[in-house]
Amino acid sequence: MLTNIMYVTVYVTDQDRALEFYAEGLGLEKRLDFPGPDGRFLTVGVPGSPVQIVLWSHAPAAGQPGGAGAPGPLILESEDLRKDFEIMRRRGVVFEEPEPVDYAFGVRVEAVDPDGNRVSLRQQRKL
């Protein structure tokens, strides 16, 4: 029986640049960083969460979603997305929208990493 999500992978062209975006821009913590037989194994994660995001070196546009409106390969949840949005914007994070948007399910905004990967940020609607 499966018990947990261990890793998700985001394909990047420059692991150091990606680490700066995900750690300093989005505020994730660096977890693992060591050379492996197939390349550098670099992960980040949300503080307190066991799930790790592998920042895997790959050719440009390798894991990008199809078109506008499609969720990114990574969806992160926030308790206060509008507050987090302002913090991230001050850190230099680029967003597709000028500000978070309200939807029936809550609030959302799409960040874009240095490789053009869409990172979906969500806040669930409070009932």
Structure notes:
The strands form 2 sheets. Strands 5, 6, 7, 8 and 9 form a 5-stranded mixed β-sheet that branches. It is built from 2 helices and 9 strands. The chain is an alpha+beta fold. This is VOC family protein. Residues 4-124 form the VOC domain.
Topology, please?
Elements (H helix, E strand, L loop, with lengths): L6 E6 L2 H11 L3 E8 L2 E7 L6 E6 L16 E4 L3 H10 L3 E2 L5 E3 L2 E7 L5 E7 L3
Parallel strand pairs: 1-4, 5-9
Antiparallel strand pairs: 2-3, 3-4, 6-8, 7-8, 8-9
Q: Ends: how far apart?
A: 33 Å
What does the largest sheet look like? 5 strands, mixed
Structural class: alpha+beta
C-alpha Rg (nearest Å): 15 Å
Q: What is the tally of beta strands?
A: 9
Helix content, binned percent:
10-25%
> What is the number of helices?
2
Average pLDDT rating? 89
List the secondary-structure elements in sequence, H or E.
EHEEEEHEEEE
Give unreliable regions as ranges: none
Strand content: 35-45%
Shape call? globular
Write a brief caption for the model:
The protein has 127 residues and is an alpha+beta fold.
What keywords describe this structure?
127 residues, alpha+beta, 5-stranded mixed sheet, 4-stranded mixed sheet, 2 helices, globular, Glyas_Bleomycin-R_OHBP_Dase, Glyas_Fos-R_dOase_dom, VOC_core, VOC family protein
